[in-house]
Amino acid sequence: MTIVSELDLPVFDYSAPDLTGEVYHRRLAEVAGRGWLAQGPLSYVVLDRESGEFFLRSRATAFPGRQIAELFGVTAGRLWEQIDANILNQSGERHRRLRALVGPAFTPRAADRWRPAMREFLTLLWDGLRQDGKAQGEKARNGETRNEKAGGEAGGETASCEFVEAVARPYPALTVAAVLGAPAADAPRLHEWSNWVQRQFDIRSLATELPRIERAVAEVYDYVEELLAERRVAPGDDLVSALLAAEEEGERLSHAECVNLVLNVLAGGVDTTQAQLAHALRLFAGHPGQWELLAADPGLAGRAVQEVLRFEPITPFTARVCLEQVEYRGVVFPAGSIVAVCAERGNREIEAGEAFDITAERDARLLTFGAGAHYCLGANLARAELEEALAFLAPRMPDLTPDGPPRFGGVEGIYGLEALPLRWSSPTAPV
Fold first, then answer.
1. Sign (positive or negative) of CA dihedral 151, 154, 158, 162
2. Percentage of residues in the chain with pLDDT exceeding 70?
3. Regarding predicted confidence, which is higher, 403 or 1?
4. What pLDDT shows up at residue 275?
5. Which residues does 12 contact at the CB level (< 8 Å), separation at least 6?
6. pTM over 0.85
7. Boundaries of domain holding 268
8. Could you tell me if residue 276 is inside a domain?
9. b vs e for 405-430, b when ≥16 Cβ sit within 10 Å of the residue's Cβ?
10. Cα 311 to Cα 42: distance, rounded to the nearest angstrom
11. CATH number of the domain that 374 lies in?
């Protein structure tokens, strides 16, 4: 056995500022070609699926949220309270109890309940695009602008929008508001908070934007308390009301656990789906033949979502800390060692894995949502949101193509897009 620190490992810097787009994929492929393990800035990087599943499923590892927070001086305050209580950082019986309480709200059947609401939100957002297009068309007729925008009904054959702002950002926030029982008008605030709270997993943000993260956590704690108080007086058919019922039954759920579970759902269910939907449209804009297939048969939406999740996971690196000495593949990882499981390489480690193809027969196992006891609670809801969005948009956006370069975020936490300009043709028939 060799201690991991004694290995001559290739270096992979997941905090490099230029690590986005094809540069990111190319560098990962290069380092993975030298073996299954690399050295990162704060952790070792695990680069194949078998090894990734081992560390994600092992009872000798855990999510290192507390350890990472301490590295950046977060040891007290509301952010530390949230990190310490986060279901990702729980284990054993307490973790099983909390998942059992919140899990029924995120089964495939439970997620399907919200599909009609998802379609309503998509219709609302699409109608907003069409209205923007009409307004832009009127400006064009008045000589104020030369380009048709958004929706394609304003006198031009093409339409365009900045997709993140127009659809990808508001859509999951509206959905999570409905699931929680929060007013739809609160969706923009939910998105803002989710974006900042999620940055507790982003080492670059922890190093440079810690006060803003801490302020967002404090604000969202206050909001959740208000929402719980409202639902206690007027319960509904929503997750918050269900958790309050569990709290009132006594020992099943404490008030603090109830607050933190709602915060976990709010923080984890918005920014993630926004990022994955934006990457989906970016991928399809670059693969027009695949988009045409989906538009012709929206029933392919499930396979399309699976391929998007495989090809461009928005959680590229999932961390684990060794709670005790771990021996694997002839390597000793001492207690306290942190490993980052690379979903991007693990997902592509199949035949023709570097090709984006929604018709290909693929192994259904992905590392995008993790594995083992901490497999993502919201995976079914996210899949449903993405399926509904792709099935809705594909027939309405023929000839989808980029309308400028995307603006990428970093890969350290949630790998999203800050902007995605797109252009498409007006449908030849009503949809």
1. negative
2. 93
3. 403
4. 96
5. 27, 28, 31, 38, 39, 40, 45
6. yes
7. 2-123+162-425
8. yes
9. ebebbbbbbbbbbeebbbbbebbeee
10. 25
11. 1.10.630.10
Asked whether residue 68 is assigned to any structural domain, the reply reads: yes
Residues 6+ apart with CB under 8 A from 118: 171, 175, 384, 385, 388, 389
Q: At 380, which helix (H) or strand (E)?
A: helix 379-393
Nearest alpha-carbon partner for 78 in 242, 239, 256, 255: 256
Contact 293, 300 (CB under 8 A): yes
DSSP-based three-state secondary structure for 319: strand
- Is residue 380 in a domain? yes
Q: Do 191 and 169 form a contact (C-beta atoms < 8 A)?
A: yes
Nearest to 163 by CA among 129, 187, 195: 129
Residue 73 backbone zone (phi > 0: left; psi -120 to 50: alpha; other: beta): left
Nearest to 112 by CA among 175, 169, 184, 45: 175
Residue the block writes with tokens 């790998």: 415
Contacts of residue 319, defined as CB under 8 A and 6 or more positions apart, other chains included, come to 43, 63, 64, 68, 338, 339, 340, 341
Structure tokens at 192: 């803002």
Burial of residue 258 (CB within 10 Å: 0-12, 13-18, 19+) is buried
CA neighbor of 228 nearest in space, from 213, 217, 239, 214: 239
Query: According to the model, what pLDDT value does residue 252 have?
Result: 76
Nearest to 154 by CA among 127, 132, 123: 132
The verdict on residue 387 lying in a domain is yes
HSE, side-chain direction, 13 A CA sphere, residue 281: 39
Number of domains in the chain: 1
Q: Per the structure block, which two tokens stand in for 227?
A: 């929402």
Q: What does the pLDDT look like over 162-183, one tens digit per residue?
A: 999 999 999 999 999 999 999 9
HSE of 231, CA atoms in CB hemisphere, 13 A: 26
What are the residues facing 2 on neighbouring strands? 331
Residue 374 to residue 84: CA distance in whole angstroms: 16
CA 9 to chain CA centroid, nearest Å = 30
Q: Which residue, among 388, 378, 395, 397, has the nearest Cα to 116 in the 3D structure?
A: 388
CB count in 10 Å sphere of residue 356: 16
88, 65 in Cβ contact below 8 A? yes
Q: Residue type for 30, please? A: E
CA-closest candidate to residue 74, choices 221, 255, 205: 205
